[in-house]
Write a structure and sequence with these properties.
The complex is a heterodimer of chains A (401) and B (252).
Chain A (H helix, E strand, L loop, with lengths): L1 H9 L6 H6 L3 H17 L11 H4 L4 H61 L3 H7 L3 H4 L1 H9 L10 H10 L1 H10 L1 H18 L16 H20 L9 H25 L8 H4 L11 H17 L13 H8 L1 H21 L4 H32 L13
Helix pairs in contact in A: 1-18, 3-5, 3-16, 3-17, 5-9, 5-10, 5-12, 5-17, 10-11, 10-12, 11-12, 13-15, 16-18, 17-18
Chain B lengths: L4 H13 L1 H7 L13 H4 L8 H6 L3 E7 L2 H4 L10 H12 L4 E6 L7 H12 L6 E5 L2 H6 L3 H17 L3 E5 L14 H13 L3 E3 L1 H10 L10 H26 L2
Parallel strand pairs in B: 1-2, 1-3, 3-4, 4-5
Classes of the chains: A mainly alpha (401), B alpha/beta (252).
Chain lengths: 401, 252
Amino acid sequence: MQLTSAIRVTAPPAVGRLDDRRQRDLRLDFFRGAALFCIFIDHIPGNLLTWATLHNIAFCDAAEVFIFISGFAAAMVYGRALTQRGVLFATAQIYRRVWQLYVAHVFIFVVFIAEVSYTVSAVNNPIYNDELRVGDFLEQPHIAILQALLLRFQPNFLNILPLYIVLLGIFPAILIGLRRHRRLVLAASLLLYGVSVGRGWTVPGYPDGETWFFNPLAWQLLFVIGALCGHSAAEGRPLLPQTPWLPRLATTVVLVAALISLSWGLHEAYEPIPALLLKSLWRFTIDKSNLAPLRLVNFLALAIAVIRVVPRHARFLRWRLVYPVILCGQHSLHVFCLSILLSVTGHFILGEFWPGLAGQLLVNLSGVALMIATAAVLGWYKNATASTRFIDPAPAPSGDP
Amino acid sequence: MSAAPRCGGLLLLALTLALPLLKAAAQPQAPSAACAAPADLLQSETTLPGLAPILAGHGSLTVVAIGGASTLGAAAGDPDRAFPHRLQEILRRRFPTLSVTVLNKAIPHQSAEEMVARFATDVLPFQPDLVLWETGTTDAVRGVDLDTFAMTLQDGVDQLRRRHVAVLLIDLQYARVTESVIEFEPYLDALHQFADANDVALFRRFEIMQLWSENGAFDLHDVPKAARAAQAAQLYGCLAERLADVIVGASR
């Protein structure tokens, strides 16, 4: 997948209809790449650039974009595997990916341990020690590590990959369901979301009494919706009625949400600016853990509006300046893991060495540059290996679903 | 991370034992201009209307501070150096005709939910005029569900308001290095949005401490061991000064 797409990015697109469906939709790569940049930027506390991320002009943020696109891409890639080579093969492929994600999670955990060990000794100040207990799990490393391997212990930054792992883990069932009866899958997913949120169902974490920050019982809905869209796109069966009012409604929702959300951010920074409708809406936006309803509505409206505003072969997707973003989106797992490490390191640099604007500029720019450079190397390597084994039209699937 | 009051206890014990030493080193200093904060961090549209007549009168003012480790103030080595007690001193100085009592009802490592559960025993029986509720840190450390956190704030504030008790929320401590290990921002945002949406007075401790950290008023990281308790005492004194500003400002 990746292999073919990487070549096609440089080659002009074929326009044939069938080919159109088989070809990777660059919009997916672009928006996933943009989401990765947002995640990197949002994860550095106090970063001024967060004013420029989605979070600031919508109730939802890059996490929704990432999960939705992951569902979409997974349905395209593994859906094709299912059609061409059967259930068993597709399942094996999905689980290969789950394993990769798991290894990545464990790797980031190890880096996190290093960071915490350092922090505990650096911040040996009783003002914080007694309050934060950052060192707690270092007192019981045998249990903490075991709990991390079981995905129950999810310190900061380590909460989105476990969600993704669980969602992909159940993906074979979703995929088979989508082929049989796509509306039924959506109904079941909606029901699970409704009941979990209504009843307060959560997934237990570690230490006891804690829960997963991203509740998979709620977030599965967005992944399933993404998969449903990806499946429909692959099959060429449009999901939504082709009416002109729907994109219009969606665009209105997006603009209104942007205005409200921006006013909240500005109000927080400067009180005389009124926070529009904060009193009535905040309850429906605050709950990121359970994919709060307004976050979901805002994201779906955004998706519909973007599909309308940005056509599949939009010109800007071929711009040189945009290519690095697409590249990052095509290597999302690697770039995502790297971005987490970069956020942690960047924050550390800001705190210890260069606080202030110059430091922020340096951290943001070098972080983004490193993400792009990594994606470029990965892309180059894929191309290089592709040209050495020239005839292999049934490629090892991966890409970045 | 919740299951370690044991260590808090040990720390407290160690500090108590070291107290005579610390006392010599840690005379609470008069707050300097260094711990000033700009007016926009201290002013708010939200008011504490019930307090105005009390502050203007000659009666008594009872304040209960409920919170966690930073309210308890063990880091300063002496409960008298924690911010609630310092606040009591400051308010008594500013309102000499008023009989001011600030009670410290802090227990470290409690989530907002656990604090609300204590309202009935630790807060309401004292019939306070004002409750200072310092919360959010443990919820962030434990990664408590944001919705649970927000709804708990609502529940707690509603309980106090039903009994006509004024309430002022105190947000999280700023910690430069631990920020990268613990995700504070969602909880800070939730707390601020909740306060905004419900017209609850708020003490912006996080931003104020961040300001002090950035302008060099307090270097909270590279502190020699012997100076730490003194510094904590100074920090709590400064926070109490600004907190008094906010309370008095909001009562007008």
